[in-house]
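The instructor's notes for this session suggest beginning with a concrete chain rather than abstract definitions. Hand out the sequence below and ask the class to guess, before any prediction is shown, which regions might be ordered.
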Amino acid sequence: MIPDPTVLGPTLAPYGADTTFAAHHRAHYAAMAAKARTRSAERDWSAYDLAYVRALGVPDHEEAEAAVVLGRTRSAYLWRAPVPGAVEALRRLHEAGVPIGVVSNASGQIEATLRRALVCEVLAGEPSSAVPVACVIDSEVVGVSKPDPAIFAHGLAAIGHPDPARVAYVGDSVTMDVEGAAAAGLHPVHLDPYDDWPDAPWDRIAALWELLR
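After discussion, reveal the predicted structure:
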């Protein structure tokens, strides 16, 4: 999930920002790269905000205020726009018999958000058009967040305690996802659709469907 462009687009439009979904999709990944390169803590989004508005074409004289406005809009509940192609890729992985779980830094809302968007769901006997998954681990619920490797233990338990080295963990944050998963002994796979990390030593994919290979 990425921040909802249907909210952020109109909010940042007065500053000259591009309002298209494609532009906001690009801006998110550019901003995640900036956040990681500045080694910002999980709760420090200042580098993200500035890189995001710059990627949207906000002019120099407007970017400082636009970044402040973006920061004021930050809510876990706005991280609700599915990554293009994610549902199809997850469904094909499920149909291939691959165990799937979600481990997320969130605020207690991510399981409902994924279910509401028909991305994935931990089924409880009721039929659903969302992709079935073994777990949705929310950092607010379990009391530990990435990059602390302890959060991944909850996901591993839900899929039967496999050897962590045989488990791929996919995410778009170098510091939270790649480094956190590696510290837990998992195999990190970085979702890097715009090749922002061309020289990275870890595995990268441009889209989730590449996992099907």
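Then share the key points. Strands lie at 2-3, 79-81, 102-104, 120-121, 131-132, 136-138, 168-171, 187-191, 203-205. The chain has two domains: 2-74, 82-212.
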